[in-house]
Protein 1
Amino acid sequence: MNLVVALSGGVGGAKLALGLSRVLPEGALLVVANTGDDFEHLGLSISPDLDTLIYALAGLDNPETGWGRRDETWSFMAALAELGGETWFRLGDRDLATHVERTRRLRAGETLSAVTEDFRRRLGISARILPMSDDPVRTRLLTGEGWLDFQHWFVRRQCGPAVRGIAFAGAGQARPQPEVLAALSGGRVRAVVICPSNPLISVEPILAVPGLRAAIRGCGAPVVAVSPIIGGRAVKGPTAKMWRELLGEAPGAAAVARRYGDLLDGYVMDEADAVEAEGLRPRVALARTLMTTLAEREALARAALDLADSLRA
Amino acid sequence: MNLVVALSGGVGGAKLALGLSRVLPEGALLVVANTGDDFEHLGLSISPDLDTLIYALAGLDNPETGWGRRDETWSFMAALAELGGETWFRLGDRDLATHVERTRRLRAGETLSAVTEDFRRRLGISARILPMSDDPVRTRLLTGEGWLDFQHWFVRRQCGPAVRGIAFAGAGQARPQPEVLAALSGGRVRAVVICPSNPLISVEPILAVPGLRAAIRGCGAPVVAVSPIIGGRAVKGPTAKMWRELLGEAPGAAAVARRYGDLLDGYVMDEADAVEAEGLRPRVALARTLMTTLAEREALARAALDLADSLRA
């Protein structure tokens, strides 16, 4: 009962994953990353959430942007623009090494898991980081302009077109990452923590991989989510806009808990959303969920683990 | 009679190509580049001689290294090393844009000629630069360690293993670049200039493409080579070492002329090699062939054109 399995998307999820990695003993954290945002660009295989997690846990993340690497240079993009290449998706020079090397190894037949595992080791990360599946899953959004690939909507169109539907293409055929499945069924799980990522496009792609939701529910450990909503607002990203457009309601903390339904045993909400706790089925813990400092990330990680441990007791 | 066709490899050839481009009127220069040095590395299609020519003619070349771009940054290589990637072939951040964008467009079905032509325009180069063929030709060297791909011998092994044989794999099936062939047969050629590149691995791959040697001989214009040897020595690169190992003789200026055989009508040799001129079949002009400054590149270009024009007269 010593393994914590965290489900995570990008920025917000990576912050809590870093907190968890710092308060847990070595080898006690397995982060399962959303790969629905993955895409192919300039002939390169790009895995934004995996990379954000790797950079955050290696201390290489860019705190200003929330994506990419710190101390980045941009010579590649400048030269690409001169040659008439596509520049709407910004790839820093250091970040590019991740994509070029991953693409090379995927083409040589390695799995995304194996490449990620090797990158993690080489960058000195003790937590395991694994994709939800080694098979491609691609989040697509139905908008007034038709179906758009996620990054085209998110980056190229800057979340502009209203979202009417979401599909996780390939999810139905995707096999869960085998080590994730083995970890969940090994009887060793202390808690499953759903990080404060966008439920609709960061967590639900993970849950859409056949077998993963059932494995989480059946692992015997408490499942605790941390709300991505603070005071009725999303900290970053398109969660609020998308939620309203797709579901026709404001994206409150309680609404997120209801969205996860019977998956949750516990729910960590921000103190600012205390009034929404009433009537929620999972056991609620209030905490300060805005993770600006490292100490705040660790404190929130402890709050989520404490809630999970109390549910087991 | 206004088109000059230059055959070129990398560094030395690019210097004379730049000189030619500056002394000739706009539209009067077509540079045919060796692609035998091309290779695939990190999943990218790399064309060293084409790139050296493009960078040199666009004023973007790195004068210290003779390859790659000036004002280069190296963040990509540093990050690639952290991830355990192959770093024996150094790719600068700006240079990388050329390879990524070219690879993307080749995979999308464009020819190497079309990509090169677009790069040339975008970088403001007035001379045409075309590969000898759009089909792959790969120079391989037979050494004491067996056959080595050219860049593995040249860069990875730093020209160490002794060369016993050279093959231009694919040359027999390669089709000459159509515009090059059309230009040579259009009756408009004023001169063919063989740049001071390594005959064995920079010029002979071009001549090995079926039809090109005959088209050069049959174009009706004088063919003039500029010696890559100055005072019995090669300015840069492995020409001398390779020549000795492969041919068992010192690589003199006269030996290079004899190697080109009946292809040449004229030969520009360095003043330092004047004693070697005696008995050579092609008409010889002596010049200062070390091209350190831009003025020296232009002067040597004029010397080659003057020799060609005198042969026609």
Protein 2
Amino acid sequence: MDKINIEKSNALAVDKMMSARPILVGVGRASDLIPNMQANLILHAGPPITWEKMSGPMKGAVIGGIIFENLAKNEEDAISMIEGGEIEFAPCHEFDSVGPMAGVTTASMQIYEIVNSTDGNKAYSNLNEGYGKVLRYGAYSEDVIKKLRWMNEEVAPVIADALASSDHGIDIRQLLSEALHMGDEGHNRNKAGSILYTAKLAPLIAKHCDNSSIASDVLQFLADNALSVLNPVMAGCKAMADAAHGIEGSTIMTVMARNGTELGVRISGLGDRWFTGPVGQPVGLYFPGFTSDDASGDIGDSTITETVGIGGFAMASAPAIVTFVSGTPQDALNATMEMYEITVSEHKHFTIPALDFRGTPVGVDIRKVVELGITPRINTGIAHKDAGVGQVGAGLVRPPMSVFEESLVAFAEHYGILD
Amino acid sequence: MDKINIEKSNALAVDKMMSARPILVGVGRASDLIPNMQANLILHAGPPITWEKMSGPMKGAVIGGIIFENLAKNEEDAISMIEGGEIEFAPCHEFDSVGPMAGVTTASMQIYEIVNSTDGNKAYSNLNEGYGKVLRYGAYSEDVIKKLRWMNEEVAPVIADALASSDHGIDIRQLLSEALHMGDEGHNRNKAGSILYTAKLAPLIAKHCDNSSIASDVLQFLADNALSVLNPVMAGCKAMADAAHGIEGSTIMTVMARNGTELGVRISGLGDRWFTGPVGQPVGLYFPGFTSDDASGDIGDSTITETVGIGGFAMASAPAIVTFVSGTPQDALNATMEMYEITVSEHKHFTIPALDFRGTPVGVDIRKVVELGITPRINTGIAHKDAGVGQVGAGLVRPPMSVFEESLVAFAEHYGILD
């Protein structure tokens, strides 16, 4: 093997991450868009996991996904199918996809399609269901499934037609740049991004949707949900992270994702191997009637935002988020400042007005994480630990240090640079 | 006369200012909505002024207003009508109205109607034309008039129908509270407010506008203009300021407005008397090809935002605005901090995340202005000094100290408290 230059590899990786330009080009069925998607395959958040080891909310979402697909009529039938080996599981990330919280994505679900116009790679994410009792938080009652069907049959086609009629699709990087100047951090606070998204779609929907009542309902659904844009943003981040993946000799983290039981990372220079460890417990604010005793472990692919330098890394842009995740505006500022310690660059497109327009910290170098003992900051929603309940709060969490230690050892072994 | 208690009067005035709840309820013709509006009456920004003393952009907008009303065919005819005494002029403020920059509002123009649901008082403002060559900056060429007619005949009815179909109208105070957490200051940066406004109207427009092409055009016009919401916001601020006006013994400023030649203020406890002085010259950033030599003096009623505690007073909420008006994010923070010195309260509804959610400085006490020698901060657009050109930049300016000195002397005389 040639002698590797880690600094140079990392500079290349982070440059590809920043130069990626994810464009939201369409909406379509997962089975049509995602290569090798199968009818009995359920994609989920985080690293690989078996049914037995799944957390409550992940199990609930899987059951809901099976019912949504009409593979089973109820919870009992769904579980017997799973236990009979009729259902396959795989991480979204292994199918160019990402999903918030449980991340459950099934074959007939309508999903967003993103193309990185710089490098041509694609990424996908399901549609955001809004707040309340929703599949991604492990709820699967009849009304949850009914809403998913409405989204699939009524909302998705309207957005699909709107995007199909647009000249250039929606530039997610540009939308995020703007949203970061409007108090978002792009993960847990996507309020500005979601109304920017709604305002961009509105003229297209008004023009191309024949049914004015449906057009109005879809616009209301998008406008009322401060997380409307989270899923296209996550797919956009996935496209950026993937652009930086597979760079020989790079120690940059290109995936960080949680399934509620384990958190897994992947490293640019180490191919598709997962490094996993136990998830942390978010610390934050709980909705009335819930406490930390109700909380599931950390879950979701939404940490793809932190992976590309926003979310917990851009909290200085979003002082108002502390009303949702706890802490003070100064804590939010400190969170961003700390992340400069473990990253290799400052983002050339994502800037923070309050820090004199400094670029967000981007490109987590696992060497720095281990050397300094500082793990990435994550903003996150908090799911109830039991299947079928839903969201109970929002807060902050960190990945286990062990995944960075293990990946660094593996890196050294792989490149033969162990002393 | 009873002995007055200025502190108590001011507390009452600022409480009424903060408790006012301006709701955007409709759009209609100025002649139908504004009491005593006349066909030959042109409302303008700032304090009273004669044709002879008007600045270039004000003259240009007046000529355009006369042509828009079909009272004259061209500039020459318009001027001869004015010189023949056929046209009347009055400040918007004297007709419950406000208009940005030249503020020209004529009888057949479609205008926004605001009701303060707390006290019942009403306020009005014209529609925002967007950027470029526009009437409010003194441009009056054929394309300017054509756009105004399109707005009057196509845009306004669509918004009117949407608002008429809405259950409660649009709560402007609530929209502003949200926008201040999204990087707006509500005067020169209304980016978040404008897309919030668009997103609120979109479902209503999609549902109630029969013509999908027009619905789409209107939504595109609203979404593309980062100042769409400025005019309803200004009318909302006018309704808040008016609620605080006329409080016996109060030294709170309830109007601050500029006509390009003079700036005028009104004081809560001094009735409808104007105190005027020469306008300042904004300092800021100029569009390519223009310099401060091209600038008109300070102009517009948009300082109604500063009057109620936003705009230049809330710059700490809007660090990104410095790319538009000059300075650094620290300057923006300092601007807000300075305004706490001359105000009597902190706003209970408008808060600044970056200052630990401290309320914006609200209620300018003319005693403090004079005593401390600190005049209010104003964010503003900059018009070209000649009629017919348009906007040349944006920046910061202050009113002349003389208007506060004069009003304070008048206050002392009026209340017989001169030593």
Protein 3
Amino acid sequence: MPTDYETGLGRNAANYVPLSPLSFLRRTASVYPERPAIIHGPIRRNYAELSERCLRLASALAQRGVGRGDTVAIIAPNIPEFVEAHFGVPMAGAVLNSINTRLDADAIAFILRHGEAKVFFVDRELSAVAAEALAMLETKPLVIDINDPLATGGALIGEMEYEAFIAAGDPGFTPLMPLDEWDAIALNYTSGTTGDPKGVVSHHRGAYLNAIGNGVTWAMPHFPVYLWTLPMFHCNGWCFPWTITALAGTHVCLRRVEGTAILTAIAEHGVTHLCGAPIVMSMMVNAPEEVSRAFAQPVSMMTAGAAPPASVIGAMEAMDFKITHVYGLTEVYGPCVVCAWHPEWNDLPANDQARLKARQGVPYELQEDMIVADPVSLAPVPSDGVTIGEIMMRGNVMMKGYLKNPATTEASFKGGWFHTGDLAVMHPDGYVEIKDRSKDIIISGGENISSIEVEDALFAHPDILSAAVVAMPDEKWGETPCAFVELKPGAHLVEEAVIDWCRERLARFKCPRRVVFTELPKTSTGKIQKFVLREQARALASSAG
Amino acid sequence: MPTDYETGLGRNAANYVPLSPLSFLRRTASVYPERPAIIHGPIRRNYAELSERCLRLASALAQRGVGRGDTVAIIAPNIPEFVEAHFGVPMAGAVLNSINTRLDADAIAFILRHGEAKVFFVDRELSAVAAEALAMLETKPLVIDINDPLATGGALIGEMEYEAFIAAGDPGFTPLMPLDEWDAIALNYTSGTTGDPKGVVSHHRGAYLNAIGNGVTWAMPHFPVYLWTLPMFHCNGWCFPWTITALAGTHVCLRRVEGTAILTAIAEHGVTHLCGAPIVMSMMVNAPEEVSRAFAQPVSMMTAGAAPPASVIGAMEAMDFKITHVYGLTEVYGPCVVCAWHPEWNDLPANDQARLKARQGVPYELQEDMIVADPVSLAPVPSDGVTIGEIMMRGNVMMKGYLKNPATTEASFKGGWFHTGDLAVMHPDGYVEIKDRSKDIIISGGENISSIEVEDALFAHPDILSAAVVAMPDEKWGETPCAFVELKPGAHLVEEAVIDWCRERLARFKCPRRVVFTELPKTSTGKIQKFVLREQARALASSAG
């Protein structure tokens, strides 16, 4: 029986509006039409202009028959058109499918086919691989070329150019707001190490909450100046296209992520915030000295994808960067876990600070819950910092599920928790620390070895730029650790010296049996492709045997 | 027909959790258990302790049969128990009914009867009026005394004391989260000038969003130190009990709002944020010099309830307070409109800045929409800064409606907009400026006079502390302005001098015909009670006639 608090007190048009990040652009364009929205090379656009271009884009898509529930794909670096797509595509009622620029034609073709994109925006520099993928398709989308003046090379392969396409759109177009905040807003394929990519479907509600949550977790001010080092195709740039717009900030675009370009942009545009994997920090730390301190303002950087090495954090902080370590997955719209800092930790010795900062941490203010638990029973492990379990999450910043993949969707949500597949310990203070991705545990003689622990030891070596450790099959021990090491420019090391270095720091069974000096294969987001290294390790083992 | 983006991609326990501010306490108590949560006189409690007390409170309420949809009332100044009630009451599934401490027994009895409170928490200092109200009730709630050690006087009238009550509660109690984010969380009666008070019912979803929205609009950092000058009974302290907790900040309680006490607390506890009506600013500006600059940190203050006089803003800014002008109503959880500042406005002359800052402004980032429109046709007025219409709002920070009052609920939401009853103009830049509360327009000889405009002229006088202008009946003109003026200590003025002052600044028909020197009657939130003055003006007119 309804209570007095329910009778006649339902939702109506005045007191309930579906949450959508589209509201942010409308508000900022109305309140701050003159504030700088976009910087890209010589291009400057304010929020009135950005809004008009997004409305034209939405209108142009609608003119081509794109509507609610349709998919619109894009492959591009971090350029203004990509920011526009984050608003213009959902304003047409459609779902934005951002494609990883490092994928090969096969994978792109799979995504276009599986996602059923009706329109495909292609940056000129990426048109060769896009054309190759399109050639594999039975049903081809409408292809629109983005002919960015800062692009170099690449043919135009589409029906028309982006500028002509949106010029035909109506700037007075009325955006289609979601009918339900659960409506899909984006489709992002995860680059699994095996099998076909999975299409993560996110919803307007989560995008809205995460866009705001970014600002809360990072304590962002009004008018941030945000440098686009994080790929926008990666979990919708972790929702920052929407966050920065909500805060009336400036999007500083960047086609190529490279140390000098980053530091120059920070100085030139007064950048206050950026995100990126630890590899981006390494680029900045190793940039030429004349650009490394050419800016005056403090800069906040969020880093994810791997625990940042203490040495890199130290070098960044010396350059007046404030580093926040976050963790997440595509399924939760990017990071939703933060190593929330306690002010009193600033008084600890540097080593202790580094140890604390390497932990993934606690849920964002706007994420609901996280446990480390037994994957089958869902019983939480003891908060002892030792017992390993699987990280599980629940909350509103969480995908609807995987597109056309009910079995995997159901399995991933089993028991009312999202199963991340990441293995971690829960510390007594409630902070989570990843010990390994499920597949990355090395089991040697019945003992578990965390590849991260071995990598930490390698990172501490002054001559080592980057390192990755994987399992190498071994007849006696089952598996042994095999290290792949990238040296700093000009450095020289031999295998034995590296193993000796580790033996000084690690239990003997944890030390690499083999060390390979090589450039590490990385994904576009800076994650090391361990599956490639695992194959190399297998080959090494069989050739040795 | 469901699309691929819907099939098998519904809400489940892992990806959908009802939004509720109760999540904030759980998170902060988990991440920052040791951080200071409450300061009250000699009392210091951290978040672990605050959380435990809230859980005990919820458990104790449940033990007494309080559950989902029940009402729990409280009458108290800004003390720790009031913060606890904001969590403990909804944790029991119940609805928090905060009662204005300035109300008389009749009004309190009406509220307790209408809201059907099952439990009533009474601060000792307010027990006399509470007892008087309780004596009028046929069905009495369980009365619990809050015996604050800082209270002076007052008898204990309840069945038991608060500390004993919660001591019986179980700190391991499992909070009842809302079954639906639309569930009621609070009941606040608006003090209408005529008729019975209306019971505004707010929901968990709006409370969550507004708690976060406060932080976004005010660009609040982590760990704010918040001084409780704003009454907590007023729109749930505008949701700041939840905001400050979400940001792991410190609640600095304050029984009595008074200039020296405020400034002393700011210095002693490193207060960073506070809210209050302009009258609170006046108290601070007029506090003794030895306390007025005894603090080092910059302090942010939100002010609402009336446009702040330029002279007061100037004096506050000279004391290193950063003033943000906001506007709202109980129906929208307090302020949801802000005079969003443009950095370039800092370069304007002081007069222009004051004129801009006096405007109510634009919707908060997390409020959806606002128009100034014809109350019948809902057609927006031109954005010309001249044409007067009614402010209407829609969004998620909006009440469910009025309790047991379907006719008024329906009327207030007519046409899909909430009708505020406030009259305003829309400026060309999209900023709203209130010209008068509906009842406060003075119509003289067919011309509309905004009482605010006349009051602004009076406020500019160096000897005038406060002023209010209302309509006085007039046989010839229908109405004429009558001014009630409060002088600064030691100042002397005669009626004619005040009228002359106005004539130099206003069109003749707008100038007061009568000036009364008196202390202005104010509500507990610092709003001047114009209905009292209107009666006085009517009496003056008839005695003159």
Protein 4
Amino acid sequence: MGRVIIDMSPSLDGFIAGTGVSAEQPFGDAGLRLHRWLGLDDGRPEESDLQAAARMFETTGAVILGRYMYDVGIDKWGEDGAFGRPCFVVTHHPREPLARGRTTFHFTNESISAVIARAKQVAGKDRDVLIAGGADLARQCLATRLVDELRLHVVPVLLGEGTRLFDRAPPGTELELLDVSTSRNATHLVYAIR
Amino acid sequence: MGRVIIDMSPSLDGFIAGTGVSAEQPFGDAGLRLHRWLGLDDGRPEESDLQAAARMFETTGAVILGRYMYDVGIDKWGEDGAFGRPCFVVTHHPREPLARGRTTFHFTNESISAVIARAKQVAGKDRDVLIAGGADLARQCLATRLVDELRLHVVPVLLGEGTRLFDRAPPGTELELLDVSTSRNATHLVYAIR
């Protein structure tokens, strides 16, 4: 059965971006520090990082993005649109789909539950739906209680302030650690939501 | 060389207590959920939990506590005072020390840096100073940049709201993961602060 998965890279103090987020600096003053494990910002991925990165997409059939992530990302994702799969962009302003190579972006203002249902259908019953960000979308998805798995790449840095990954998550949500692996630049934690 | 160590049990979303904290419910509506790994709340510690609990005190020469933690804990800690070591309670209202078995509580309104220095002196050069809580004390200690190690027992639950462990930590604090171990009820992470 395909799963619904949130996959994000927070700092140890729980921020997925620093302060001063803008189109030029989508992660604010955190820069690419939170994505060094992916080989950005002069990082050198280790074996566990490469496995965590591969896992992000190997069973993914569809992706859900927030509108802000799309806006700041689309010019950087190149001619292939980076994801190589159907992507659903949650926005107040739906419009015609945009194709970039193997990636098609669908813009929807349906409810989060409806978007997840549609993404599951498009992914097919054996492939996963990946919720790639940002934090506001992740929060809304958690609130639907339709998320099956949390994959966190916890980066060994404290940012102090910025955009929090977890804000008003559904209280009392019990998790089960399925896997942990470590590298110099991240602790990769996979949790099932019970 | 003795280290200065913060040791705490946050939920995956970063709370060390839920809402509704009171003398009767020191962890609010989280109850003892965050301390199940220690054998409380019907928990059954696994080997990794026992090791993490033992590590909390085996090299500890002195303990620093916030006043609130002391106030809600003192009646529960029994005739031995639980810690078995000199404890420094940071308070606005200093008073005479209180002895409970092998534990002596010293009440101080000195600056956090001065309290850490005094605790280090009492611990001796080969033993550690343990900062046991709460969150406000941990925050003040981090701000001094005198903390060497963070030991987090991350509990697989989302609380949604409550008392955050990390709030305005010193931005850009780089960490190094020294050890990780897991159990059903906690992921034990040990970080050095660089």
